[in-house]
Amino acid sequence: MQTDEVGSFLGNISVHTTSGRGASSEELAERALARILSVGANVDPVLREQAEAYKESIRQVLVFYLDEAMRSRNVSLVSKFQQAGHPELVGILDI
User: Fold this and answer.
1) Which range of residues forms the domain containing residue 76?
2) Which of 6, 12, 32, 90 has its CA 20 to 30 A from that of 77?
3) pLDDT for residue 85
4) Domain count, the chain
5) 15 with 44: CB under 8 angstroms?
6) Model-level pTM?
């Protein structure tokens, strides 16, 4: 496979990093939105405004459910820590 074929096979690749923490729900929502919806540069201003409002609505839904998923995972971790006899580890979770 030639280099140009690899690029078209893989599509656009981007790297997102954090330092000393995982990604926030807002950061994950932005990454998801970039894959779900984009507004072209030459779009009619009225359509652009509608698309941006729709995108913001989707962002709010994504952030809400990503926060829910993170809370749910923490609840599962609390249970696992307690079952393993390490309730002191619960304090390190951001809950």
Assistant:
1) 25-92
2) 32
3) 95
4) 1
5) no
6) 0.75
The DSSP annotation for 19-87 comes to: SSS---HHHHHHHHHHHH----TTS-HHHHHHHHHHHHHHHHHHHHHHHHHHHHHHHHHHHHHHHTT-G
What's the CA gap between 25 and 76, in Å, rounded? Answer: 18
Provide the CB-side half-sphere exposure for 3 (13 A, CA).
Answer: 0
Q: Specify the pLDDT at position 3.
A: 52
Q: 62: closest CA among 17, 25, 37?
A: 25
* Amino acid at residue number 62: L
Q: Do the domain assignments include residue 2?
A: no
- Provide the token pair at 90: 């619960």
Residue 78 lies in a domain: yes
Q: For residue 49, is it within any domain?
A: yes
pLDDT means per 10 residues, the chain with 95 residues, are 56 80 94 91 93 96 97 94 93 80
